[in-house]
Structure formats: structure tokens, C-alpha cells
Backbone:
């Protein structure tokens, strides 16, 4: 039985502020039964409920995979291609392990995956990300690198700017050592930027090795750093994230192959927890041949809208007001046309 | 309807401006009538209060959480909290 939760939210800028209620009962009970389910409640101590004590509404107290579900409206400025995952270079459906930031632009990558030869992933083409914590939607491709070619990132760099400040480290000559599963000759600057003993939720994206299949590159957690051998990143206990049969798996130890005198590029990584994927070969609204995904009646409303905007450009405000009124009238008529019969209240919308 | 047909109905030949206004119009329609709806799931991280909204979101229709007031892994709608929480978070109030 999953643990019952009590959340509430607020909006701050473009973010959700998620709060969890840590409530207790004055009766002193720490477990109660509701509809046959045991619910743990904490009876606050006097220290917690005093003026300096623990408040009721706090940040979430546990990790929950896919815990938040946002239902939202989006603008249909693209059409999703067929989900094709059978052929390799002609595939349109792809998985990725995580994202990182290269020169301020969103970049995605997958372990052992070379996207250079994919016909539908070309520079200036569009990809559609779904299932991401943050990046759902259309992105234009800026650069694609072979993960096995020793490039500076080995992923798909997009034109999407990322405003967050993220960590980045590079060293122009290091060696990957297979017997110890380490990267040696790494400048001590690494440990001033990244943690020498990271937590389980810290990730890095490693690029730069041109070992076979790009096996030394990828999204990694659980590394450690020491100053021995000119600075060593120890990956013997690290986890590298990969995909097997369309589900995320891990490779824990002994995956490093020898590769010497290479540059290494290490970015702060953000893992997508296995649910993120993207479509390539996406058709977007950028020329006259694009088929608008709208019901015919709303297409007529859209004609009024575009006419109104052109009238506004010509400072013909009276005409613009008339056309906008027609636009709204058609949209409202289209909405009300879908409702028939009496209505019935199903429950209190804030709690169900 | 294709963009070309819409431009003919409007009586314009400037493709760039027409496409910009069509994009505006599609957003406006979805603000008013929500013709295209999708869902996105985000991981809850212990002690993290703030979560980014989806990049392509125009209008939020519902916000649900797993196990909200239930123990059956159901997603149920969240109430919107009024007032500031007394407990601040490390990534902001």
C-alpha cells in the first residue's frame, strides 16, 4: 500500500511550488485507519510545534517518481511523425538518458548512441521532446556529434537556450585506464567544480574519448576524485545509464576501455529517469505547405484573427475590433456546440 | 486547412508575417478553448519545493499528484494554497 500524501501547490513565476502537509493529531495517535488503509501521521513534539518548531506545510518529504502530473493546453505548431523504432538510421522515435548544457544550449545524449547517421536528425531540423521533466516541446537542432568520435559533447545540441548556470570542466590530456576503471591526469580543478564524493542524485555527462562505440562517454553517477596519478576520476563504482530494449538500464562497473592522450569534457548532467524520449523528422509550422491541425470551424476563426492582426498593423482599429469580436464569437460558438443535455455535478473539483 | 489556403482567405502574401500571426492565433485559441491537451509527469524530489512547468505549456488545466489523499497510486488534483508557507526552502521561499 502506497503512503497517503497531502499536497498543495502555489505558482511562483514559471515554477510550481509544491508543499506537503506534515500534519499530526492532538489525540496523540500516530497511525489512524481510513477506509481500511493505515495512514501514518506524526504527532509533533512540543519542540516542533513551538514558535521555532516545525511548521505543517513543508517541501515534499520523500522522492516520488512521476509524482506530479500536469495537464495543460499547448499550441499545435507541429505534427508528430510516425513512431518508428525498427530500422536504426531511419528511426523517428528515440530515447535519451539526460540533458546537459553546451555553450548555453540544451544538449541531450544517450550512452553508446551515435545519432550522426540518423537521416531525420540533421542540423536545422526539429525534434519533439516528450516525457521530460522540463523540456517537452519542439527544439531546433544546432549540432549533432558522434559519441564515439571524441567530440566535445557527443550528443544533440539544440538552439534552446538554458538560462541556468551549470557546471562544466575540460582537460586537454587525460587517459582512460581499463584495469582500474579510471580517468587519470585530470586537473585538480575538477574537484573545485564537481563534488569529489557526489550524492546519488548528482550526475555528469562525460565526452571526449574516441574508444570503440564511445563506451567511455555517457551519463554517470557515483564517481569519486582523488589527487593520485596526476588527478584521478575513479569510475570503478560508478553507474553509467543506458538503454536496453527501450527501457533504462545501468552498467555499474568495468566498462572503461583504454584510451590515452585525449581531451575530456565533463558537463553537469540531469537524468530524465527513463521516461524521456523524442521524435525526429518533425514537421513544424514554417512554410505555406503546413497543414494546420484545427477543426474546420476553428480554422475560420483563425482567419478572422490573422485579418485582425493585419488590420491592427495598418492602425485600422475599428476593423481590428470587429474582426477580433468575430474571432471570439466563432471560438465560443465552437465551444458551446460540443455541449448537450443537462449537467451534473460530479464532486468537489479541488480534491478529486 | 493549409497555411497557403488561410493566407489566400486573408488576402496576404507575406508568408513570414502570416505564419507569426497564425502562431499567435493558435495560442489564443488554446487560451480560450483548449483544443490541444496533453499531460506531463515530473519526479518529486525530497526537500525540493520548486518544479519547472513544461516548456510548451500555454494554459495549465489541472495539477495532480500521485497518492494525493489516497494510498492507491491514484493521481488526484491538488488544492491551491493561499498565503505564504512559514517554512522557507533552500531554493527560495
Residues:
Amino acid at each position: 500500500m502506497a503512503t497517503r500524501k497531502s499536497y498543495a501547490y502555489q505558482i511562483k513565476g514559471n515554477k510550481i511550488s509544491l508543499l506537503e502537509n506534515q500534519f499530526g493529531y492532538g489525540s496523540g495517535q500516530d497511525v489512524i485507519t481510513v477506509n481500511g488503509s493505515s495512514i501514518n501521521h506524526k504527532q509533533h513534539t512540543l519542540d516542533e510545534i513551538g514558535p521555532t518548531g516545525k511548521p505543517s506545510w513543508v517541501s515534499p518529504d520523500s522522492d516520488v517518481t512521476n509524482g506530479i502530473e500536469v495537464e495543460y493546453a499547448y499550441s499545435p505548431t507541429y505534427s508528430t511523425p510516425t513512431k518508428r523504432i525498427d530500422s536504426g538510421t531511419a528511426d523517428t522515435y528515440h530515447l535519451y538518458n539526460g540533458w546537459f548544457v553546451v555553450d548555453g544550449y540544451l544538449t541531450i545524449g544517450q550512452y553508446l548512441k551515435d545519432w550522426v547517421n540518423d537521416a531525420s536528425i540533421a542540423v536545422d531540423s526539429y525534434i519533439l521532446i516528450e516525457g521530460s521533466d522540463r523540456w517537452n516541446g519542439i527544439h531546433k537542432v544546432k549540432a549533432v556529434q558522434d559519441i564515439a568520435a571524441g567530440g566535445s559533447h557527443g550528443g544533440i545540441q539544440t538552439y534552446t537556450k538554458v538560462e541556468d548556470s551549470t557546471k562544466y570542466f575540460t582537460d586537454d590530456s587525460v587517459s582512460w585506464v581499463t584495469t582500474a576503471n579510471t580517468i587519470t591526469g585530470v586537473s585538480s580543478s575538477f574537484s573545485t567544480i564537481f563534488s569529489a564524493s557526489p550524492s546519488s542524485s548528482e550526475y555528469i555527462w562525460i565526452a571526449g574519448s574516441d574508444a570503440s562505440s564511445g563506451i567511455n562517454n555517457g551519463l554517470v553517477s557515483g564517481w569519486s576524485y582523488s589527487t593520485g596519478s596526476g588527478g584521478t576520476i575513479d569510475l570503478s563504482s560508478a553507474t553509467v545509464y543506458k538503454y536496453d530494449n527501450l527501457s533504462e538500464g545501468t552498467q555499474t562497473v568495468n566498462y572503461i576501455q583504454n584510451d590515452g592522450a585525449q581531451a575530456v569534457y565533463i558537463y553537469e548532467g540531469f537524468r530524465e529517469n527513463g521516461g524521456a524520449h523524442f521524435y525526429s523528422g518533425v514537421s513544424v509550422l514554417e512554410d505555406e505547405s503546413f497543414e494546420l491541425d484545427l477543426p474546420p470551424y476553428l480554422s475560420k476563426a483563425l482567419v478572422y484573427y490573422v485579418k485582425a492582426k493585419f488590420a491592427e498593423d495598418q492602425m485600422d482599429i475599428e476593423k481590428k475590433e470587429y474582426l477580433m469580436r468575430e474571432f471570439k464569437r466563432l471560438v465560443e460558438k465552437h465551444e458551446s456546440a460540443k455541449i448537450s443535455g443537462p449537467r451534473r455535478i460530479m464532486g468537489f473539483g479541488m480534491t478529486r | 486547412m493549409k497555411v497557403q489556403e488561410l493566407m489566400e482567405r486573408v488576402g496576404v502574401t507575406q508568408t513570414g508575417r502570416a505564419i507569426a500571426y497564425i502562431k499567435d492565433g493558435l495560442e489564443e485559441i488554446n487560451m480560450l478553448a483548449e483544443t490541444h491537451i496533453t499531460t506531463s509527469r515530473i519526479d518529486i524530489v525530497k526537500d525540493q519545493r520548486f518544479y519547472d512547468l513544461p516548456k510548451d505549456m500555454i494554459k495549465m488545466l489541472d495539477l495532480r499528484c500521485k497518492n494525493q489523499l489516497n494510498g492507491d497510486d491514484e493521481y488526484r488534483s491538488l488544492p491551491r494554497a493561499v498565503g505564504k508557507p512559514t517554512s522557507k526552502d533552500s531554493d527560495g521561499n
In short: The radius of gyration of chain A is 26 Å.
